[in-house]
Amino acid sequence: MHTEGDRSLDDLARALGEALLAHHWQLAAAESCTGGLVAAAVTAIAGSSAWFDRGFVTYSNEAKVELLGVSPLTLHAHGAVSEATVREMLAGALARSVAHVAVAVSGIAGPAGGTPDKPVGTVCFGWQRRGAAPECVTRHFAGDRAAVREAATRFVLEGLLQRVTA
Fold it and tell me: Which domains, ranges and CATH numbers included, belong to the chain?
């Protein structure tokens, strides 16, 4: 028996697509530190246009404000890597898409940029279904930049799959 941690990103994305299709739902992704890796993982699956609406790669604070409607006050008070910012990224992704489900991710992949409060590897995640409350969590991943970004992408897909199949 395999756990989700044993599954490839392709397998996770394929299972997610099947689950979204079963509900007739579409997905939107708002990404910062993953830089489009979530969108790349889901669009690697043939037929994903039936269940993936769009992705927003909002790496800069300005992009988060302009494309997703994140408040500059939230960014100033909490920083880009915060559950408050991810919550607003989710709201923006849902408001600016036809998706039924959205995910948002913002973090510090490194090698620089960390602080004592938010060390390298800190990543904030959010998932939300249209009409439901957002769910946000913060995790820390070890490793270099590539490892943090891959772990964050895997965590996003696993979290989506759990929530869509629940």
Answer: 4-165 (3.90.950.20)
